[in-house]
Amino acid sequence: MKVEIWSDVVCPFCYVGKRKFENALKDFAHRDEVEVVWHSFELDPNFEAVPGESIHESLAKKKGVSPAEGRRMNDYMTNVAKEVGLNYDFEKAIPANTFLAHQLIHLGAHHGKQDATKERLFAAYYTEGQNIGDLDTLVQLGTEVGLDAAEIREALTNGTYANAVRFDEYQAQQINVRGVPFFVFEDKYAVSGAQPTELFAEVLEKVYDEFKPAKPALVTVADGPACGPEGCD
């Protein structure tokens, strides 16, 4: 069973949604049959970081509110994250463009480390105050999940996975993704937002029951002398 997830690294509900989905998956009897694929989605592709600007000020400017209101929004999000065991630290968070980070996630996928790369970037941004828009920082984070430093630097410098990011975003447009996280189960059922773990659990069960692999039909490859209830041939 395939689950595709569109998200952005600087989307606070995306990290929360990841945890809620993982909690549901952990208790799902057929979790080993679930393939999770992460897709890129940039909330603000044209974002340019302003040196020295806090995440509260950056959010306030984007929302057209005061810095105090921006801080209040982030405080609310911090409390939401605590409910799933995440310790957001917006005082250290550095506003960043995520285009390079999404390319790193695609490189991670190429090496079978997509989820680990996604998780490392989330933690770096929300809990450690690392600049995920910085090339050297991304090289370091990538090596921490087992990727090669030279390959990371070359891929991000040359834009090896830039088109892969853009294709993810094109796909999002085709299925009318307006906000993230956005979960698609078996190309048929969609769940938008960081829904409760219980809802994800229900969807996993429903989709598996509908799409679970059928037992292969029995094919007779040879037919010879045999015995039955009425005797032998």
From TrEMBL:
InterPro entries: DSBA-like_thioredoxin_dom, Thioredoxin-like_sf
Highest taxon above the source species: Bacteria
Coiled coil: none
Pfam families: DSBA
Residue ranges constituting the DSBA-like thioredoxin domain according to the UniProt record: 3-204
PANTHER family xrefs: GLUTATHIONE S-TRANSFERASE KAPPA (PTHR13887), THIOREDOXIN SUPERFAMILY PROTEIN (PTHR13887:SF41)
Name of protein: DsbA family oxidoreductase
Native source species: Hymenobacter armeniacus
Lineage per the UniProt record: Bacteria, Pseudomonadati, Bacteroidota, Cytophagia, Cytophagales
